[in-house]
Design a protein that fits this description.
0% strand; mainly alpha; 2 helices
Length: 77
Amino acid sequence: NQRDRDRERLKVMLFKSYFEDDLLEVQKPLQILEVTCEEVRNNLPFLKLLEATLKTWNGMNAGTFCGDAKAFKLDAL
């Protein structure tokens, strides 16, 4: 009916009016996350620590009831 269509059109108009502000609100945290991820990927001491941790856990998991499953490889992270 006409009332439902008008209501949907109003929802769309409201969405459009707030979209840019909402986008700007989300962009800064996403940029921070992107920079942080890049810093972690390029942090050699952290990667070495992570690799040693993963090797330890993979070794502890070997031969268990989990069917000798292997956990993660560093590349997967």
